[in-house]
Automatic annotation (TrEMBL):
Transmembrane segments: 39-57, 78-100, 137-156
Protein origin, superkingdom: Bacteria
Pfam annotation, one family: DUF4199
UniProt keyword annotations, A-Z: Membrane, Transmembrane, Transmembrane helix
Protein name per Swiss-Prot or TrEMBL: DUF4199 domain-containing protein
């Protein structure tokens, strides 16, 4: 457990940041009055998500590897971190769906039918629901976490890697 303590800590931090983002979206009206802008503005979450991932990888480099971390070591750390985030994702989605913003799905279902994205309420309900979002969230957390790590480690890795010592 000591080997992956940092990844678990940062997965919890990432999840809390994601929940805070959902709360900010709700408070700003993106789950209600301004729902038409939600599909565009929600993508801005990539900014804090990348920042948290980079902070986690730097923490691993400095705390666990003593400031010298290879690309491979960082990639493994990022994959573990992404897996923890993916595992926590359904819980975060449950909190979002049933605690933070229970009106989101009814609002987005109604509006997506009004705009013609879906032909019927039933069709929209098949997409906009907790189960679908929990599955998508877990999959995308894993994929985007690994992609972010692969790119970030180009810059975070030590020039003289631990593998070359």
């Amino acid at each position: 457990m000591k080997k992956i303590r940092i990844e678990f800590k940062w997965a919890v931090i990432f999840t809390l940041v994601a929940l805070l983002w959902m709360l900010l979206e709700k408070l700003s009206g993106l789950h209600g009055k301004y729902i038409d802008y939600h599909m565009y503005l929600t993508n801005l979450f990539a900014i804090p998500a990348i920042i948290v991932m980079v902070m986690a990888l730097r923490d691993k480099k400095n705390t666990y590897y003593g400031g010298v971390m290879s690309y491979t070591q960082g990639l493994i750390s990022g994959i573990v971190l992404s897996a923890f985030i993916a595992l926590l994702s359904p819980l975060a989605q449950w909190i979002t769906t049933y605690v933070i913003t229970p009106e989101y799905f009814p609002n987005v279902i109604k509006r997506s039918v009004e705009l013609g994205f879906y032909k019927s309420i039933e069709e929209a309900q098949a997409y906009f629901n907790y189960k679908n979002y929990a599955i998508q969230g877990a999959i995308w957390s894993l994929i985007m976490g690994i992609v972010t790590t692969a790119i970030a480690m180009i810059f975070i890795r030590s020039k003289k890697s631990a593998e070359n010592k």
